[in-house]
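Minutes, project check-in
Item: structure for the 288-residue chain
Input as provided by the requester:
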Amino acid sequence: MKKILFPTDFSPAATNAFIHALEFAKIVQGELILLHTFDLPIYDNQYFPENYNVIFDSLQLSQFDAFKDEIPKLRAIAEEQNLDKIKMSHRLMDGDLIYNIKKVIKEDKIDFVVMGTAGETGWGTFFLGTNTGSVINAIDVPMLSVPLEAKFKKIKTIGFTTRYRTKDKKALKEVITIAKKMNAQVRCLYVKTSTSDVSETTIKKWDTEFAKEPVIFSVIPSDEIKETIIDFILFKEIDLLVMLAYKRNFFVELFKPSLTEKFANTSSIPILALREKKSRNFEEVAAG
C-alpha cells in the first residue's frame, strides 16, 4: 500500500487539502499518515530551576490535547466524502517542520506528500516563503501542493510541461499512469523558443510513441515561457499541473501576481511536483 504523508496545522488551507489527500489516496490505493508539528519555546533553565520540566510537560500535553481534538473532525470529513475506509494514522512531533517531514519520509518510506497552502496572492506567496514552499525543495518524493482556493473536483485534464528530454519522457509515462487511474487526459505543452534545439524529428517520435496513450501534445512558439504556460492552464482548462525538476525561483516567477492577476483561476489548481532526483522510482510508486 502506498504511503501518503499529510502535514497539517489544522488551518482552513490544510483542511481543504485533506480532501485532496483522501481522493489521491483512493486513486493510488494508499494510506494517509497525518503529521502535526509544533515548536516548544526555548527556556533557560537557570531561571526555572524547579518547574522547568513541569512547563514543558504542560506545553506538550496542551499540544496533544489540541491534536486529539482535531483528529475526529478530519475523520468526520472523510466520512462525509465516503472515504472513511482510507487507512489513517497519526504522528505528533515537536521541532522543525521540514526536518520532521524528512524524518517521517525516511522512517515510514513515504511515497507522496500532500500539503495545503494559502495566501492573498496565491502561488506567488506560496513559493516565496510559506512552509509548503520550503518543503517542496527539501524532499525527494513527489509532492501535491493544494492552494486554499482549489476545492476538490474530478480531475479531467492534467497539464504537463516538457522540453522533450529523456527524463521528461520518463516523467510523462509516470503521469500517464496517474491519469489512467483518474480516467483523465494529459495535455503536454512544449514552449518552443527562438533558441530551441529540439528537432522536429524528436517531436514526431514522441507523437508516434504516445499515439495510443491519452495524451495530446501542444507545441507553441514563444519566447514568453511563463506567460505561455499561464495561458495554457487557462485555455486548456487544466485541473492539475505537473512539473518536473523546476527550481523555486521558476515557480515564483510563473505565479507572481503580475502574471496571474488577469487569470484568477490559475492560482487555484493543485500542482504535482516531481523530483528529478531518483531516490525512488515514481512509476513504481504510482502503480497500484
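Outcome recorded: The chain has eleven helices and ten strands.
No further action items on this chain.
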